[in-house]
Amino acid sequence: MDHTVLVKTESGRRDEALVEATPGRPVTDPSVSGSLADARYVLPLKWTDDADLDGLARYLAEVVTWLPVTVVDGSTEELFAAHRRALPEAVEHVRPQPWPGANGKVAGVMTGVRRAAEERIVVADDDVRHTRATLERIVELLGEAEVVRPQNYYLQLPWQARWDSGRVLLNRALGGDWPGTLGVRRSALLAAGGYDGDVLFENLELVRTVRAAGGREKVALDVLVGRVPPTVSHFCDQRVRQAFDDFAQPSRLLAELSLLPLMCRGARRPGGLVAGVLAVCGVAEFGRRRAGGTRVFPADTVLWAPLWVLERSVCVWVAVALRACGGVSYAGSRLCTAGHSRVALRRRLRGRKPLLPVSTDPRRARNQW
After folding, report:
1. Residues of the chain with pLDDT > 70: what percent?
2. 85 has a pLDDT exceeding 50
């Protein structure tokens, strides 16, 4: 199936062009210009099995031909050694440095950022699959903002990916989704003293920290970055954890807590429920049409949005119960804080209390190992 995308011609005029999209292949812009000279790719990793190691190694073998790559690997010694053998030799493969907090991903990100000599950093989860075009666009946008939030979509669409796509479409309609990849300026994050590792919603915490320090955020819904769909077991494990993230967004939390009572009340009025389902689908369709989303989100993903709303209406109450019991289980401990408010982050930054002494000189950061 062909998809229409906007491309920039040599004259600078943006024209439409047809590119062929096939399942599993990201949509790319055939004439993207830009430079990755001052950029680095940072991938925090902590695996308990190597089910997708070959796929990740093949992907990074391509990425490392475009820009330097650092994999910060918190896996066991046995898996760490296997990863070193499988990953391309050009990939920098290191252990995470100590960082305050139980969220190991934050330690991985901060290790990669501190070691980097480059100013523009693209942070990505292990299931994210960038193209050169998406990397160049994020790096370009980092010239306009200190943190860039692109848009993920699933490269394949088993049922669990379609279900989660319903959530993505609603987020797109209501301001912006939270992807598994971000662009950030190294100097801005280090000037803020890094970000807290005792939170569950680490991407939101990073963005809010940079903004609290005076940085600008760019929500780039048109930068569409592919992602490998989760396994069914991983998808199920994430339902309540993702609902817990909403404690970092109180207004959204309150809205979601109201869903189940409203549904129970509306169950006596089938017409009202039908109207509610149609309204949710309408919002999701608006999100699908925003910023070129129809290129990667099939029309039927809209129909999964009401199922996600039903799921969240239940899971958010489970999250409340977990909060009352001490938080969500994470890596052998419990995390009770989803993310800090902007007010709390500004207060910390005004006090000039970095989480750890952070050198902006990458040579010093490397010598700390």
Report:
1. 86
2. yes
Rounded to whole angstroms, the Cα distance separating 312 from 261 reads 13
Burial 46-74 (b: 16+ CB within 10 A, else e): bbeeeeebeebbebbeebbeebbbbbbbb
Look at the block and give the residue holding tokens 């995308």. Answer: 5
Cα(158)–Cα(280) distance, integer angstroms: 22
Please give the Cα distance from 41 to 226 (Å, whole number): 16
If we measure between CA atoms, which residue out of 119, 110, 111, 128 comes closest to residue 184?
A: 119
- Separation of CA 157 from chain center: 18
Q: What pairs with residue 72 in β-bridges?
A: 44, 94
What is the distance between the alpha carbons of residues 131 and 178, in angstroms, rounded to a whole number?
A: 19
- Closest to 189 measured CA to CA, from 148, 245, 250: 148
| CB contact set of 366 (below 8 Å; sequence gap of 6+) | 115
Chain center to CA of 183: 10
Closest CA to 79 of 52, 98, 100: 52
**Measured CA distances, 24 to 158, 160, 169 (Å):** 12, 16, 20
Confidence of residue 127 (pLDDT cuts 50, 70, 90): very high
Beta strands in 155-253 (DSSP E): 181-185, 217-227
Terminal-residue alpha carbon distance, the chain: 50
- Bridge partners of 185, per DSSP, are 120
At residue 51, the pLDDT reads 86
Res 180: pLDDT: 96
Q: In angstroms, rounded to a whole number, what is the distance separating the alpha carbons of residues 7 and 12?
A: 9
**Which two tokens mark 96?**
């995470």
Q: Crossing angle, helix 53-63 and helix 77-86, to 10 degrees?
A: 50
